[in-house]
Amino acid sequence: MSKKTLTLFTALVLGSVFVFSVPGQDQNTGSSSSSSVDNQGIGVYLLGPGDILDVRVFGQTDLSSTVEIDSDGNISSLPFVDTPIRAQCRTQKEVQKDITSAFAKYVRDPQVSVRITERKSRQPATIAGAVRTPMQVTMMRRARLHELVTKAGGWTDRASGTIQIMHTEPEMCPDPSDIFQKTALASTGTFGITVFKLNDLKLGKQEADPYIRPGDIVIVTEAEPVYVMGAVVNSRELPLRDQLTLGRAIAMAGGPQKLANTNEVHIYRQKEGLAGQEDLTYNYDAIKKGKTPDILLKPYDIIDVRQSGAFSGKGIGAMFTNLFQGSFGIIQRGVIGY
Length: 338
Description:
5-stranded mixed beta sheet, wza like fold, Outer membrane lipoprotein wza fold like, disordered C terminus, alpha+beta, 3 domains, rod-shaped, 6-stranded mixed beta sheet, 338 residues
């Protein structure tokens, strides 16, 4: 993992400075804003510590109350109920049945309703990096990686080709069948970071589309740049991804100009661990003809395609071509004039 990525992860984990938007959520109603995964499947929301429930017993106001699930995952503050009721990793309907049974000791056929008023048991997931709208996403239900990427507006042109996912807390209600456990298409790095390939996600490979846990940090990594300049059609900065080579970089810059010295293309490359740059030269013509292997570029390479000298073969040829075309144009104008 690069130093740049590690620094970003550290900043996110510590919560010191967030450089992306954090839309809010209406905690009273449980409805979600634009930052929340939609309410599809909300009926199977699994409760957890910190969630608040509104418990109502029809005709029995002394039994009705608002309760918070405690740190052990239990409901332990219901009136007249001494035995805690397990709530963690259960749905509100399941809990409602147990509360009904508990109150049945005091009321014949109690009519009990349980409603979630605040969902506070899960930290939002964070998605940042090369996406159009970095944000925090409230996890109202289980969501896959592609849903968070879509919520963030998709990846940008600067995406490097990998997505890093870091867990910040243990999963509250683990499912042994979760895709995340199957890492055939992922590589696990340091700091609990798992790396997936963007192309695998684009191809719809299931193993590259894991469920995202609450509190996860998802980084669509940004590609480091290389620069193409000089006698090319369009000098530009390019994101370094997909094994970018010298030949491809020049082609992406529109190709060399007519007077470019393609026999001697310069690459200025940072010296590893040292100050300054080294000047490397390569024969682009030989690479294009397949006589020499293409060169893999490195981050921050500067490709300088220089012009041929005025008295070089290309320079003299171009000069005579221009002279001939100019003279021919004068003759044609004279003939047309008559």
